[in-house]
Fold:
Amino acid sequence: MTEGLTSRSSDLRAPLPGPFGRVYRSRDRTVVELHSEIDIAAATLVGAYLDVVTAIRAHEVVIDLSQVEFFDCSGLALLCRARRRIAENGGQLWVVCDQPAILRVFRAGGVLNSFRLLTTLAEALDAERPAAEPQE
Structure:
């Protein structure tokens, strides 16, 4: 399921399974660009890729939701797991999302303020590392 991906950041350049997106490096950050629908079926497949990306120590990761058409609590659980794993490894996570329907899922899950949400990929790639992790 994770062919082509290793835990070395220089090797992170691979499509996600099916129509779910791709992983690539840009400006010293790993970008996980998700596409289509991120529901329970997609979460199972995408989760393995996120586990590889989030296993790297002191790694900076951007998860881009700008091309996601549907996102439910399964997707939110994926992001919460990724955020926790990245924080445990001393890394940073930014999420790109400007879609009201997806932001409602974050709000309903009570985690809207737990993520560094930005509206464009450029903003996420330019964002400074914060001094401390946001509190839930």
The first strand starts at residue 14 and ends at 15. DSSP finds four helices and six strands in the chain. Helices lie at 40-53, 73-88, 100-108, 121-126. The CA atoms of residues 64 and 96 lie 5 Å apart.
